[in-house]
Amino acid sequence: MKQMRNKKGFTLIELLLAMALMAILIVVFIASFNVTLKRGRDQRRKNDL
Prior knowledge:
The chain contains 1 helix and no strands. It has 49 residues and is mostly helical.
């Protein structure tokens, strides 16, 4: 059995998983931000009537 060397750093899989998680969080944030902008715009339109 091979012994693992004590290397510092991240594996490619760990980096890909971190990037995928960040991408999912960014998509969720953008979607909720767009809803907030739309609600604000709609409220301004109602106030202008």
